[in-house]
Structure formats: C-alpha cells, structure tokens
Amino acid sequence: MTSTRWDETWHRLQEWTNGQAPSERLAAQLLLADGYQAVDPSHPLGGRDGGKDILCTKDGLRCLAAVYFPRGQQEFTKIKNKFQEDLRKAEAQEPPVDRFLFVTNQELRLAERQELKELSRIQVEPYHLERITALLDSPEMQTVRSQFLGIEDEPSDGRGGRGGDAYASGARAAAMGG
Q1: Tens digits of residue pLDDT in 17-71
Q2: What is d(CA 123, CA 151) in angstroms, rounded to the nearest whole number?
Q3: 19, 67, 106, 151 from 11: Cα distances, Å
Q4: What is the rounded distance in angstroms from the CA atom of residue 127 to the CA atom of residue 173?
Q5: Whole-number Å distance between alpha carbons of 66 and 106
C-alpha cells in the first residue's frame, strides 16, 4: 500500500489496531535499530512475563522494556499510571535492571517525559510517538515500517517522479513541469 501522506507513520502508530504481540515485536526492532544488544522479547504472543516485555543491554547496562500501544491518544494520567505499574515491576527485578525503557505510541511532551523520568530511582528512557516515528521513517527501517505498518515506499528506478503537465506554444514559449 502506497501512501501519499507525509505523516502516515505517525498516524498509523497513534491509531494502532494491531494488538500487543505486534507492538512488542515492533519495539524489539526499534531497540535493535537504536543500538541495543541481546534484545530478548519475553512472551509477545501472551504469557506471564513478570513485567519484562523485553530484556536487552546497551553501554554495559541491563535494560528492561515495557510496551504500551493503546489505540488513540490517551490522557497523560492514564499513560503515567501504566508507566508506574510497569516501572514498579522493573524496579523489583532480580538481578536489578539499570535502565527502564518505556516504549509507547503516545505523544509525550517534554515536561511529561521529564515527569516520568523523575518517578524512578533507575534510569528511564521513554520511546514515545515522535521518537518512534523518526526511527521508523529512516531509510534503514523501510522493511520494518512495511512489515508492521503496511507502508510501502514507492519503488525507484532512479529517474525521479512522473513529472507534470507542461505545454508550450509559439516560438519564444517556455514550458515548466512540476
């Protein structure tokens, strides 16, 4: 499916209808693309994971990711409650985790991100709607964007687009295409 919207990725993420399993698998791909290693999803198809949607490492730190992809923008209070619920589970892990990753399709303002970070005694790294969109819209993520969002890029043979409709009449006429 080809899209003509410049912000199609953002819209498909925000109006997520694919369920929990694909959101956890998408989150794993995002973390891999952002330099996380040993990315280990727990139970994306369902099952008790003890609050560990994904375990991974980066910069020598042990990290735990929680994934929250509801449909449509939620009130910050609801997002914060989900964050705190997942954070409590992350902080209770043995062995302890060094960084908590909150991967969500929700818009989070700068002040809201800071508020979430201040709720924790461990390092917090929010992956919010704009950050995820930026990652997915990078050329390296084209296949992932296609797989999880159904957004296909137009094939290119290097010749550019279709061009416009130009015409010229008269000896000194000029034509402009678009």
Answers
A1: 999 899 999 999 999 999 999 999 974 445 555 567 899 999 999 999 999 999 9
A2: 33
A3: 16, 18, 11, 11
A4: 54
A5: 13
The two structure tokens encoding residue 41: 């999803």
What single-letter DSSP state applies at residue 178? -
Query: Which of 68, 73, 81 has its CA nearest to residue 26?
Result: 68
Whether omega for the bond prior to residue 70 falls within 30 degrees of 0, making it cis, is: no
**Beta-carbon contacts of residue 110 (< 8 Å; ≥ 6 apart):** none
In contact, 65 and 101? CB cutoff 8 Å: yes
pLDDT above 90 (res 15): yes
pLDDT of residue 152: 86
CA dihedral 10, 16, 120, 124 (to 10 degrees): -50
Task: Identify whether the C-beta of residue 96 lies closer than 8 Å to the C-beta of residue 62.
Answer: yes
Take residue 110 and report the two structure tokens written for it. 């700068």
